[in-house]
Amino acid sequence: MLVSTQTQFLGTSYSDADAIRMLHEAGFDAYDFSMLKMTSKDPDEPLNGDNYREYAKGLRALADELGIVCNQAHAPFTNGKKDQREIMDKILRSIEAASILGAKIIVVHPCHHLTYSEHAEELHKINIEFYKSLIPYCEKFNIKVAMENMYQVVNKSHRMVDSACSRAEEFCSYMDEVDSEWIVGCLDIGHVAVIGENIERMIHTLGNKRLQALHVHDNNLCDDLHTLPYMRNINFDAVLKALRDIEYQGDFTFEADRFLRFMPEKLVPHGLKFMLETGRYMTSQIEKESR
Asked: What's the CATH code, domain 3-287?
């Protein structure tokens, strides 16, 4: 099982190439390439330029030279404030770029721009059509799209509540209705926790055919903190047992790098190594009885 982490913090604080180098030096098997910067207003963002293919090819050549692979990627998203389909051109470009990097899966958020409690059925219909529209690009670029479980924030109380794919049965129904080998599930562990769903039940319900990617991070069960496991309140012993129970076959990918932003620059490489060692321990617990 490959252990990887996203490039979001490193790619933003340094550069995408530096992120790949630093993850290689820390010992990670793979990297999850984050393309969230594509929605920024930075006019110099390479993936928004005419030479985006050459840029991706350059990163691929660097990774190949170092011996680290891109196992998955993350498409840009609208944070639920706008319809995902409004940035369809960027999403499609990110799918192509991810394929150049060699990613097997790219995570694409569902549309959840409408208040879920009032528009769940409408969002369901929108998202089935949305994901079906991505299948031809999956086939063209030989890469799977993973939908992700989301949450919404109640403005007045800042409380996190259900959104698209928050609950196990709905998450399954989305994938089953799309009914394509190209559309799979990425379970965001932290997102499950903040809306109060049982993580182990979610994993068991999804099973290893639907569940093919992970976003692993910890929180206080109230806020989406994206910090390292065992630092807050999620019961990771139970999570790892559930992944072991279903004989999870995907990679182990962190989205837990926010703690790095508080570190002095000289300590960041040590923080990455600690993250990797945490991942090695966790994957050993998943694999120990399923070999």
From this structure: 3.20.20.150
